[in-house]
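Write out structure tokens for DUF1993 domain-containing protein.
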Amino acid sequence: MTTPVNAYDIGIATPLRGLLSLQNILAKAAAHPSAATLAMAKLHGCEDMKPFAFHVQSCVSIARGTPDRLVPATQPVETEQAGVDLDEENVTLEKLGVLVQGVVGLLQGVREGEMEGAEGKRVVLRYGGEHTFVWQGRGYILGYGLPNFMFHLCMAYSILRSQGVDVGKMDYIGPFMDGMTVQE
């Protein structure tokens, strides 16, 4: 018997797996021979693209946004609490790893029951004072949170891959394969 997919599965468990994937990717980057010289602030896929660190920070921000907006008891995780200085010129793989780990811990602390009713909760998101977006929780998760999270995760992976970091499909997709069995 299968259980239906719910807001917890899509809004918490899936980004959590994505952050575990991001940890894999960061570990591979740290093991790269030129890791010490990888300039995070200048590491782009192409000239007009945001840098690698921006994509990692976006994954973290989006992943923590769901519980911040939909789970009343969740305390927002601030980068200062994690002891991470995200000044663009001083970003390191280690600092990004600490940031990711902080939100992994936050998401691991969210229980499925805390997301009950989240699908219908009103979510308001403001962009730079110009735009205000309003969704019900389900629409926010499926139409904004998850697609944006996956975009930035893919960009982080792709940027490192384009720089010769030895990341492969299983580094990316492995954490998403929860519950899979291999039949021989």
